[in-house]
Design brief:
about 70 residues; alpha+beta; 4-stranded mixed sheet; 2 helices; 4 strands; about 40% strand
Length: about 70
Amino acid sequence: LVTDCEGAEMSILTGLDELPAKLVVEAHDCFGVPTDDVVDFLETRGYIIDSIELHTPNATREANVVTAHHP
């Protein structure tokens, strides 16, 4: 599952009935979705965080792309 939903990441993740084996989540601190919240949510559900990379789609906004998998 790949999400890029401009601040609705946690709403989408918490609303899923089943979480997929692999996730890529673009977390937007500027939209009130701290990367730490996404990471904590995933880790408490057994995910292993593979990477967290800074993504700057434009000069005024940045996000962290969290990649994770469930063993």
